[in-house]
Structures are given as structure tokens and as C-alpha cells.
Amino acid sequence: MTTVRRVIREKAFQSLFQLSTHEELTIDQAIRLALESTLSFDDMRTIEEAMKEVLPEEKNTQQIVQDALHYLRKLVVGARENSEVIDETITRHLKNWSLSRLERTNLLLLRLATYELLFEEEMDKRIVMNEAIELAKTFNDEQASKFINGVLQSIADENKV
Q1: From CA 60, how far away is CA 8, in angstroms rounded?
Q2: How far is residue 5's CA from residue 23's CA, in Å, rounded to a whole number?
Q3: What CATH number has the domain spanning 82-161?
Q4: Which GO terms describe its cellular component (predicted)?
């Protein structure tokens, strides 16, 4: 069963990926592309309509769509605005690795999850970590998910989350 938060995290990851490969994009443009890659910038659909389409059907009321868009923006903006602290934290927990050696997918998933672990105190940290692991399996492979699990568990242990 796909949850609203799973969709939000997936779209946040995809938005961060867009921003990492297309520096000229604004955050809203990256989010729009993540919500629907076939959605063109001159399409008449709103970003709210695009979000409604990607959410589970039973969870796409107007309020949930608005809340989902708010949290999606918060994740993307937060991960970017706090990148220095996030990258320093990740670096401290890499064993025999550096940020520059990480695959882009793994780095972006780590940044997203680390943002939530450090800055979103109301989030259940086990869920944040599990979602990052599942996204790694979706967008990379089993080995990547184990690597991400190890780094995030180390971060969680250090921060007693």
C-alpha cells in the first residue's frame, strides 16, 4: 500500500534529482517535473491537480493535496537550504567513503532522509529510515539500500533518534 508520505518522499527525491542535474530549474519547476514528467510548463493543469493524480485515490482530497504539496516543498527546500549541515553529518558517518564517491541516487536519498532525521522532529525516525531504504531499492538496488541503512542508522544512533 502506497502512503501519502511515501509519494511525497519519492517526489522530493525526484525533485532533488532534477535540481542536481538541471541547475537552471526553480524548486517549483523541479517539483512540477517530478509530479509528472509528461507535464509541460505550459500545460493548463495546476501543480495541485498533478499532485492529486499521483496520490492514492482514497487520499487525494483537497486538504491532503495541499498538505502534501506543503510537505513536499518543505523537504526539497529544507534539504537544499541545510545542505552544509546535512553533508557534514553524512560525511561523519561514511566509512572509507567520501561524498564525491557516492552515486548521485544514494547521495540524494541520504540528504533527504538526513534532513528529516535532523530537522523534522515530529517524524517517526524509523519510518523515515525505512522509506529511504525502500526508495533505494526502487531507484538503485539491494546493495544501495543496505549502504543507506548503515549510514542512516549511524546518524540516528549519534542523534539518539
Answers
A1: 12
A2: 26
A3: 1.10.940.10
A4: cytosol
DSSP string, 71-98: HHHHHHHHHHHTHHHHHHHHHHT-SS--
Q: Do residues 112 and 75 make contact, with C-beta atoms less than 8 angstroms apart?
A: yes
d(CA 80, CA 27): 10
For the chain, residues classed under CATH 1.10.940.10 are 82-161
Which pLDDT tens digit goes with each residue over 75-94? Answer: 999 999 999 999 999 999 99
pLDDT at 31 over 80: yes
- For position 10, what pLDDT does the model report? 96
Element (H, E) at 133: helix 125-139
Q: What is the DSSP letter of 26?
A: -
pLDDT value at position 139? 95
CA angle 94, 136, 46 (to 5 degrees): 120
Phi, then psi, of 115 in degrees rounded to 5: -55, -50
